[in-house]
TrEMBL record:
Class of this enzyme: oxidoreductase
Cofactor(s) listed: FMN
EC number: 1.1.99.31
Segment of the intact protein contained: 72 to 452 of 455
Residues forming coiled coils: none
MF GO annotations: (S)-mandelate dehydrogenase activity; FMN binding; L-lactate dehydrogenase (cytochrome) activity
Keyword Flavoprotein in record: yes
Keyword Flavoprotein: yes
Stated name of the protein: Putative (S)-mandelate dehydrogenase
Organism listed in the record: Rhodotorula taiwanensis
Length: 381
């Protein structure tokens, strides 16, 4: 199928499913907890797709909608659109150019790519592929070995990372059962990023080099003792660089992130891959708005998980999100069509966002207000 025939993000997944290896499809697709015998599994993964439908619009008409401006800022940096590419590992499982496809597609639309610590290309390659003015952020899995942690952090900053997304929801890797099956069959698979760790001087490289995909990144490479005081540790080593805590699941932790001086949070369940049964991030955003709306002015609140439509992006913005991240759609787009697929996906989403704004009666992002949506389960308010 020609990339020009694609009209919505879900179609990239359809095309990708027909070409991806079973291992890649399982790694990309998996949530936590899966069994054929009991189909009601992967609860969080399913819930975050469905959650967007719990929110309906209250559109306004007769508002002069010819001109639409979807620009915003992330952490003070101007953006043409209120969405970004969420960090997702192992893009090369789907296409030989992997993360470089994502970098090139993002450049075509000035969309921020948050470069994953679990990428299958090195940070040098990925940041090396960016155009001079292109904004890239870097996602940080803080290793237990703080000498290595500091080295990785400083290196990403030297390469030009404009913000650090500290992933906080992986004190242990979730039980991703679709993927675990294939891990069993891939004992001798040498993981592409193991070599990078070796190059970065990871002391326990030998312990990880023959692990399956589900074991990577491993607990040795993500400090299970990460805590709020570590924001200051990172801040000291990344002066002037905004810090965003990724993987927050309740209002209390948004409050703590603000108290400890983070610049932003991402409400996220890691794409339903960590704690199965965790609430969909949009429900958490509703909770923040209900319990402590002032927080939305103190700290930038981002959200990801199950976003597939411009209307999803617009709903999140109405409820106070600053920006919305996309994980799997970008992996599928680059698997199916390389950089052209990423570019097409971003174009589709941009057009959908602008169309949704026009139909809703919002000329600018600032016009997207909570009164423009209704959340269908009132107890959630
Ligand atoms: C991820 N995610 C992720 N997050 C992170 O902080 N570091 C990482 O390396 C990865 N890797 C990763 C791989 C794959 C295959 C997936 C699907 C996800 C989580 C990601 O940033 C984001 O939170 C979710 O992907 C958002 O959900 P959707 O858009 O995939 O539904």
């Amino acid at each position: 199928r020609n990339v020009d025939t694609i009209v919505c993000l879900d179609e990239f997944e359809e095309v990708a499913q027909s070409i991806l290896s079973q291992m890649a499809a399982s790694y990309y697709g998996t949530g936590c907890r899966f069994s054929l015998a009991f189909p009601e599994t992967e609860q969080t993964l399913r819930d975050e797709r469905e959650s967007w439908q719990r929110i309906r619009f209250r559109p306004r008409v007769m508002r002069k909608m010819r001109h639409i401006d979807s620009r915003t800022t992330f952490l003070g940096m101007p953006q043409p659109v209120p969405f970004f590419i969420a960090p997702a590992g192992l893009a090369r499982l789907g296409h030989p150019d992997g993360e470089l496809n994502i970098a090139r597609g993002a450049a075509a639309h000035d969309v921020v790519q948050v470069v994953s610590s679990g990428a299958s290309a090195s940070v040098d390659e990925i940041f090396g592929a960016k155009s001079p003015e292109q904004i890239m952020f870097w996602q940080f899995y803080v290793p237990s070995d703080r000498v290595l942690a500091e080295k990785k952090l400083r290196h990403a900053i030297e390469l030009g990372a404009m913000a650090i997304f500290v992933t906080a929801d992986v004190p242990v890797l979730g039980k991703r059962e679709r993927d675990l099956k294939l891990k069993a069959r891939s004992q001798n698979y040498e993981h592409p990023i193991a070599a990078q760790w070796k190059a970065a001087g990871a002391s326990d490289w030998n312990a990880v080099k023959n692990r399956g995909i589900s074991d990577i990144p491993d607990t040795a490479h993500i400090d299970a003792n990460l805590c709020w005081d570590d924001i200051a540790w990172i801040r000291q080593r990344a002066p002037g660089i905004p810090i965003v805590v990724k993987g927050v699941g309740c209002v209390e932790d948004v409050e703590l992130a603000a108290q400890y001086g983070a610049d932003g949070v991402v409400l996220s369940t890691h794409g339903g891959r960590q704690l199965d049964g965790a609430r969909a991030p949009i429900d958490v955003l509703v909770e923040v708005r209900r319990r402590n709306p002032a927080l939305l002015k103190q700290i930038e609140v981002y959200i990801d998980g199950g976003v597939r439509r411009g209307t999803d992006v617009v709903k999140a913005l109405c409820l106070g999100a600053r920006g919305v991240g996309l994980g799997r759609p970008i992996l599928y787009a680059q698997s199916a069509y390389g950089a052209a697929g990423v570019s097409k996906a971003l174009q589709i989403l941009e057009e959908e966002v602008q169309m949704a704004m026009r139909l809703l009666g919002a000329n600018t992002v600032a016009d997207l207000r909570p009164e423009m949506v209704e959340v269908s389960s009132p107890e959630r308010w």
